[in-house]
Amino acid sequence: MDNGTLKRPRHAYTDIVTTTQVTLVQIDNYGPWTVTPEPRREMDLQTMQSRLFADIAQFVGSRDGYAFFTRFDNMVAVTNGLDDRDHERLQATIRNRYPVTVSLGVSVAERPIDALEDATGRIQAAGSAQDHSRTEVLAGEYVDAPGDDDLSIAHFDVNDATGKYTDQLNEFDSFIRIEQGYAALMKRLREEHGALSFFVGGDNIISICPDMTEADYRATIDHVSEAADVDFKVGVGRGRSAHEAGFAAKHALEDCRYEGTTVEFAAPTAVTR
Amino acid sequence: MDNGTLKRPRHAYTDIVTTTQVTLVQIDNYGPWTVTPEPRREMDLQTMQSRLFADIAQFVGSRDGYAFFTRFDNMVAVTNGLDDRDHERLQATIRNRYPVTVSLGVSVAERPIDALEDATGRIQAAGSAQDHSRTEVLAGEYVDAPGDDDLSIAHFDVNDATGKYTDQLNEFDSFIRIEQGYAALMKRLREEHGALSFFVGGDNIISICPDMTEADYRATIDHVSEAADVDFKVGVGRGRSAHEAGFAAKHALEDCRYEGTTVEFAAPTAVTR
Amino acid sequence: MDNGTLKRPRHAYTDIVTTTQVTLVQIDNYGPWTVTPEPRREMDLQTMQSRLFADIAQFVGSRDGYAFFTRFDNMVAVTNGLDDRDHERLQATIRNRYPVTVSLGVSVAERPIDALEDATGRIQAAGSAQDHSRTEVLAGEYVDAPGDDDLSIAHFDVNDATGKYTDQLNEFDSFIRIEQGYAALMKRLREEHGALSFFVGGDNIISICPDMTEADYRATIDHVSEAADVDFKVGVGRGRSAHEAGFAAKHALEDCRYEGTTVEFAAPTAVTR
Amino acid sequence: MDNGTLKRPRHAYTDIVTTTQVTLVQIDNYGPWTVTPEPRREMDLQTMQSRLFADIAQFVGSRDGYAFFTRFDNMVAVTNGLDDRDHERLQATIRNRYPVTVSLGVSVAERPIDALEDATGRIQAAGSAQDHSRTEVLAGEYVDAPGDDDLSIAHFDVNDATGKYTDQLNEFDSFIRIEQGYAALMKRLREEHGALSFFVGGDNIISICPDMTEADYRATIDHVSEAADVDFKVGVGRGRSAHEAGFAAKHALEDCRYEGTTVEFAAPTAVTR
């Protein structure tokens, strides 16, 4: 049956520009806090950071956004669908439950990197990340006319990572391979396309992308294969929210798995839940 | 007062071999679970993974070990001081509170990578990470005669990361710099010394090392500076437990900050709490 | 200044009926799970239950609802403002992150107890709480025309609990006093008014009430004082959501504290945040 | 087979006195914090309290102790097996991860209430629970010669609570029944025996008891049946730790279930895990 082509037209989304709302979450004055009055136990810091991220992931995620841990002291979220009131609430709930506070910068652009650049600038304008009098900045602009294809998300994973790495190498050598692949992929996608790519565990990378063609994705994967000797495949989805786009991307990646292909675009019909 | 040299003799520990107990925590059959019966919401997976790691960090950390999130589906911990009963308990508490179970492989060696290699092998011997009938493996050997200097931990951070990156660049470009530095550092330390290095947030990397000289650390830092154009400094500590060694390393890193130096070894007196 | 009377007309809300949406959250087949294949460690159960409640409190609370732990295996939430899609999402996120699943019954009535009665019936109709084939029921009806004063919430606390109990008695004897007071209050308010009252920690009780007069509250407090020898005061608020009504009630309770009064109604102006 | 009697001699433990170590965990200056600078969102408080309790339950529980949420701002734990260093660590990990700190009072006595009385006194001696300059008190004494039968724990539940209440009544009316039963039981056991009883969810109550006979338990159950019209059964266990005693009690309670009896004592052989 060859109507697969009809079901998943590979360039379906080309020429529809993206509109990406990005939030930078920055813990206020975190570095100094971790060593005051003396260095705090590392595992307490790890626990606190991970749970803070988990709470943000749950808050943003239950509103159909995506959040990424990035460097933990700075986290990046895709927040189409969340307004200033949601952001205020996120800020308040963290203040009420953690020993630290966060600043939030929000901005919107076609290219994810441009939205993040502007979001970062809004926080930087208020003072240094280590300025102890700069707390709980909330500065942003929000999408005002949401569209069905505003977001483009690509979900990458490594071909047969379990068979080639996890079940063969010691865990650190597996991890090195994935990390080198990630380092190459994140750099390439940022430089060539202004995309933001995040390692999300296992052998998975999620990229917040502008509108890109199948050829763009193939060239990216080829580059990483050469530069880092790690072979990725990718599913790409579009949607009104990060969840919608990302969920479509996951389904497209499943298609890659079943059909042995390298790049799949989700059909334009939005999938929910 | 110039007895700083006396307080921190830089080669104090050289020639005392390390004894590192490493635990590999592997979520059983996790990949398939994340897409069964259909892909699960990404932010739920992120929340679950982060909290699972946080719980392991808290369990291991409150017994003076260190745990690292690594790839989240596979986590690595330094567990000197934890015996098989502690490991059984960790396995049971996860089973009782999460929708997934974990397998644990434990081993001991002078070089951290050798301990992890053996720990990984113990789990691999029982079946594939995606074999759904292989659950809750617990296979290991434990340190039987603990010594005061069994562990060597190096705590790296980037020189003036806030001033040069966080307050200047957009967050993703800052992150790319740190990631490229981490990718270079982890690879080098593993290849040259069999050390295990983990990004722990911000601009911090913690390495579980064998006995290494100041020259070894300087060569590592120089290599990364050339390869990735990121400048690290490092504090190094020894101790009976990961916490003890790591806490000493943090203090040594504080010394680097105050004195503008690149490599500092903690004085041999163990620091607690 | 005596315009306090003007600011807080004590019967301001009388004669505006309440519209309360109540959700019953019931863990599916939980009792049997806790002892299969043999009794699970009690502290693991306590940890799991508390965190499940915390996640529900956060999910519901960040949408301006209130959730109460009640018996932990059965939790009650006031969910005006949350629709069926929110409830589906709550159910899914628990399934994805916990070893248990939940059933949800939702209903709406003027009196809170009637809403809960109907919500409970919707779950009971699908099978026993210990029927292992009855999982993830989602049955409910939702408020369709929300009004500004739909909810009435009363926040009670014990007069000078710190001075009379916490700083004087051993903690268990303090606790017994609070518990006896709670047991009397919950019973009275349910029997006389169909209100649902929940202990929320310290010496605080939050009641979801129908429209009640100042005289009703005074009679309740007098009854408890006689029956259990514990003296409460109460702030009462109205609002479109549990948060709005509850927040107004907290402010009214602060008024009791500052003015030494026993019953205060919040001014009709809704307070947000 | 009638060797059940041999396996579970009902007075096996009588005449071996208990040695109970109790810790009072009191959040410092919590009341004022919850309303400063204005009342905090109730669901944030609920989330924070529940997670703080969960962390304490996990910390204490993974060392074989038991913790109870009690009033949340004051929690009671049975900590045989935990020394001052463990308590210091608990205090530090809370400081590092929460917006509040805790004071800890620890004491040892034959009767649980006497241990708590003394533990409470140690904190009260340092200042009021609402004295903002009194933070992180750590004052205690610890068991110095642990014995195999130091603790006696009784695990109560309500006969056929699911059939009689959960599947028949609305959840609040079920809850009222359980609460009235709990209020009567906690008061009776404290007054007659100096035991500490805690509701742990569902229809379960766990009591930390001194040495008591089967007749004592029967009289207690009869009293509650008359006073509150709720019928309990109970399993009783002894052990070196709360977990050991409590786990034996759970098994004994399972025996009640299978054999339709009202009071069962666990066989003296300690059960682990």
From TrEMBL, chains A, B, C, D:
Its EC number is 3.5.4.29. Catalyzes the formation of 2-amino-5-formylamino-6-ribofuranosylamino-4(3H)-pyrimidinone ribonucleotide monophosphate and inorganic phosphate from GTP. Also has an independent pyrophosphate phosphohydrolase activity. InterPro entries: GTP_CycHdrlase_3, Nucleotide_cyclase, Rev_trsase/Diguanyl_cyclase. It comes from the Archaea. Signal peptide: none annotated. Belongs to the archaeal-type GTP cyclohydrolase family. It catalyses: GTP + 3 H2O = 2-amino-5-formylamino-6-(5-phospho-D-ribosylamino)pyrimidin-4(3H)-one + 2 phosphate + 2 H(+). This is GTP cyclohydrolase III. Keywords: GTP-binding, Hydrolase, Nucleotide-binding. GO terms for molecular function: GTP binding; GTP cyclohydrolase IIa activity. The lineage of its organism: Archaea, Methanobacteriati, Methanobacteriota, Stenosarchaea group, Halobacteria. Coiled coil: none annotated. The gene is gch3. The keyword rRNA-binding does not apply.
